[in-house]
Automatic annotation (TrEMBL):
The lineage of its organism: Bacteria, Thermotogati, Thermotogota, Thermotogae, Thermotogales. This is Putative CheW protein. SMART domains: CheW. Coiled coil: none annotated. It comes from Thermosipho melanesiensis (strain DSM 12029 / CIP 104789 / BI429). GO terms for biological process: chemotaxis; signal transduction. PROSITE patterns: CHEW. Residues 2-142 form the CheW-like domain. GO terms for cellular component: cytosol. SUPFAM superfamilies: CheW-like (SSF50341). Pfam families: CheW (PF01584).
Amino acid sequence: MELKVLTFMLGDEEFAIDIMKVDRVKEYEKTTKLPNSLDFVEGIINLMGEVIPIINLRKKFMLQDFDEKEKTKIIVIRFENEKKMGFLVDDVKEVITLSGDQIDQTPEYSGESSQFLLGVAKLEDRMILILDVEKILKKEEKIEISNMVK
């Protein structure tokens, strides 16, 4: 089994998502804030006529917020239900292909964060946390966000 992933940075940590879930990567764009939204919802953008909610992954993962948002990137994700959402990240690195023997199952001791991890890729000089984009947001959060951008 091989998995082609897009790698990106959040602070000092490297993450990856299945390339088949990625619609596009774009430069930072100022968002329009939505009142009474979840604290990790950065706002919304207009992407070719489509309203896309932007999720601040640093806030979602309870990391320190970005110092300079203008230097960030937005990874636009396409979910199974064809809805799109943008993930605000520090930087996008590369597309790599991982073989099955490079991917370990999520450690059982990782608690709540293990819900949205597919596994951990072990490469020669680094480890990459592979995210399951469908599980980053809880069901209630997805519903609340989709209700904001109807």
